[in-house]
Structure formats: structure tokens, C-alpha cells
């Protein structure tokens, strides 16, 4: 018996990294997973994004945990495509109980200061994509009528502005992740009457391909910005996906049944420095 037996979770950005970690952990607690990912690169994002093979691996890991998994290839920036993909998942495994809006992009180390295409890509993915995820999933939770839990994955940069360097990438990332907090608080109020809890988690840098890629690493080495990565706790250069997953698991579980509208940093003290 798991805490999430007979529930259905939609997870965006599920093909690798934090999304995969969340999907497998929820499956081990009894949830079926609708796993959404773009599975393609984006021209303005300077590092490789997840592939269909990555998504297939997540699906296999969920199935190995004894639960159903429905892969959905969709771009969170495209509301029509996202809604159609989520509906495919609902048709396969039933209405939704849990949503983890995890999909996001960053371009740490990109020195451009006036790139509107880059700014638009980051904000459209990290902020508008979260709004689209709410639109594509919450009606299903309401229709099911049992309440639910929504977790929006923001960032420590959604709580502070430390590390701003004037680049398009950092402006867009901090702005989009702050915007996620506004969405969370508004949604917590809007959906409370339907017994839907909405919260956000705020990791610092996480050891995933979004950070551990040649472009970001080389950019940080060339232009060190200690304010981006410095933690209060010693010897923690990056947190691990599982650290974020533990916070997510608590928020979606019955143990947090009266918790809504809060921000939870998972950051080794980044936001208090």
C-alpha cells in the first residue's frame, strides 16, 4: 500500500532530471503517471533538451514500479497541443488527482543582453507553460470531485534576485520563476473551493542535465557568479533531484492535506544568504 494508491499524476518535463525523479517516486507510492515532455530541442536554448528515448526510459521506470505510464509528447508553450496530450492520458488512466508543473528551461552563461527571442522562450516555457498546465489539468481534478494537489516547480531565483548579471537569460529566468509564485498564490485561492491545494517548491541548482551540460558549465567557468551557486550549508554545490522529490512527495501526500499556498525552498540555504 502506498500513500498515493489509485491516483493519477500529470508531470511535465518528465523525460529526465527532476521530472523523472518525481514520476518514479510517485509511482512507487501508487500513482499512475501521465508523463509530458517536449522531446525536442528549442532553437534559442543553448543546450540539448530531452529526447523521446529519455521519455521512454521514464515510462519504463514507472512501469517497473508497478504502475501505468502514458507518454505525452507536447510543448507546454502550446496550449492546444498540451490539452490534447493530457486528454490522451486521461482517456488511458482516468481523471487527474495530482499535477507537478516541472517543465522549465534556463540559459545560464548566455551573455546576450537584448535577445527578445531568448527572453520570450524562457518566460513562455517557465511561466506561461505553468499556466497552460493548470488550464490543461485542473478541470479534470474538478470533474473527478475528490480534490487534489498541484505543485509548481519554481526556483530559489523565484524568491530572490541574487545573481542578476544583466543578461537576458538571468532577467527572464528570475522574472519567470517569480511569476510562478504569483500563479501559485492565485491558484491556491481560485481552486480552494474544489479542495485543490496549490504550492510551489524552490530548488537551488539541481544536478540534472539542465545544469550539468557543456554550455552552462563552460559559461559558469568563464564568468563565475558566486551569488548564483553559493549555499549556506557547506559542501553542497548542487542539490540532488531526490531532495526536491522528497518535498514534492510530502506536498502531494495526505500528510500535507491542510497545506496550501506556501513556498518551500530546497536550496541548502541559498535564499537566506
TrEMBL record:
Record keywords: NAD, Oxidoreductase
Gene3D superfamilies with a match to the protein in the record: NAD(P)-binding Rossmann-like Domain
InterPro entries linked: NAD(P)-bd_dom_sf, Sc_DH/Rdtase_CS, SDR_fam, SDR_subfam_1
Molecular-function annotations in GO: oxidoreductase activity
Keyword NAD: yes
The keyword Isomerase belongs to this UniProt entry's keyword annotation: no
Pfam families in alphabetical order: adh_short
Family membership: Belongs to the short-chain dehydrogenases/reductases (SDR) family.
Protein name in UniProt: Putative oxidoreductase
Organism in which the protein naturally occurs: Mycobacterium cookii
Phylogenetic lineage: Bacteria, Bacillati, Actinomycetota, Actinomycetes, Mycobacteriales
Amino acid at each position: 500500500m502506498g500513500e498515493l494508491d489509485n491516483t493519477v499524476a500529470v508531470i511535465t518535463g518528465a523525460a529526465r532530471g527532476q521530472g523523472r525523479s518525481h514520476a518514479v517516486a510517485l509511482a512507487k507510492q501508487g500513482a499512475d503517471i501521465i508523463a509530458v515532455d517536449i522531446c525536442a530541442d528549442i532553437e534559442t536554448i543553448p543546450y540539448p533538451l530531452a529526447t523521446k528515448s529519455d521519455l521512454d526510459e521514464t515510462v519504463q521506470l514507472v512501469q517497473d514500479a508497478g504502475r501505468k505510464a502514458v507518454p505525452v509528447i507536447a510543448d507546454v508553450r502550446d496550449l492546444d497541443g498540451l490539452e490534447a496530450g493530457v486528454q490522451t492520458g486521461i482517456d488511458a488512466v482516468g481523471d487527474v488527482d495530482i499535477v507537478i508543473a516541472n517543465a522549465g528551461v534556463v540559459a545560464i552563461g548566455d551573455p546576450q543582453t537584448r535577445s527578445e527571442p531568448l527572453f520570450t522562450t524562457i518566460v513562455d516555457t517557465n511561466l506561461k507553460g505553468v499556466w497552460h498546465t493548470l488550464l490543461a489539468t485542473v478541470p479534470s481534478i474538478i470533474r473527478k470531485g475528490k480534490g487534489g494537489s498541484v505543485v509548481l516547480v519554481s526556483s530559489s531565483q523565484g524568491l530572490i534576485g541574487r545573481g542578476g548579471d544583466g543578461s537576458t537569460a538571468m532577467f527572464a529566468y528570475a522574472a519567470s520563476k517569480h511569476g510562478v509564485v504569483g500563479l501559485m498564490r492565485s491558484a491556491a485561492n481560485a481552486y480552494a473551493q474544489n479542495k485543490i491545494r496549490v504550492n510551489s517548491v524552490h530548488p537551488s541548482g539541481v544536478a540534472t542535465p539542465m545544469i550539468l551540460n557543456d554550455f552552462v558549465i563552460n559559461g559558469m567557468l568563464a564568468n563565475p557568479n558566486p551569488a548564483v551557486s553559493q549555499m549556506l550549508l557547506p559542501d553542497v554545490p548542487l542539490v540532488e533531484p531526490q531532495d526536491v522529490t522528497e518535498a514534492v512527495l510530502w506536498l502531494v501526500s495526505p500528510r500535507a492535506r491542510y497545506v496550501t499556498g506556501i513556498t518551500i525552498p530546497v536550496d541548502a540555504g541559498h535564499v537566506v544568504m
